[in-house]
Amino acid sequence: MIIRHLMIIKLLVLLFTTTSCSAKSKKSEKDYSPMHRSEIMLRKAIGDSISNIILRANTIEIGCDSATITKLGNNDRSIIRYLVTDSCNYTADTEVFGQFHAYLFAKFTSKKRTITAQYDFRLHKWMLIGENNKLLRRFDLLNMEILKYALLAFPKNQKLIEIFKEQQEK
After folding, report:
1. What is the pTM of this model?
2. Could you say which DSSP state residue 155 is in?
């Protein structure tokens, strides 16, 4: 009698393990992590080829007013990727009057292809520049976290300090 119950239990265990492995559902978009969702939105906003360069860049350099260039280490590279993929910063491109001045740029290089993100904190605009200074995309800069990062990277830059103080007064 005990052997018969053990055989039934083994059969049930075998049945449950095989059915649970084969009954997997597809991942819905809500199952993705927040970082993965922002990458998906980035790809929709700027396209696969441009986003691949940004997300898989071998080297990332940042500069301030074209004078100071810093090659980023692994920790800073993940931070700058996070800031560039912030979904609120590529949702709109409203018309703004004024001359664009790049106060900060981030240069992403992957397999000899380069994309540069340039930021104008006064116009609240940023743009992606390809090779030969070709404008690829332009967006409103709605989140100023990249300005805070620029202040951490270039703490003695007077223009960035001045722009940050202006933003704090608003």
Report:
1. 0.70
2. T
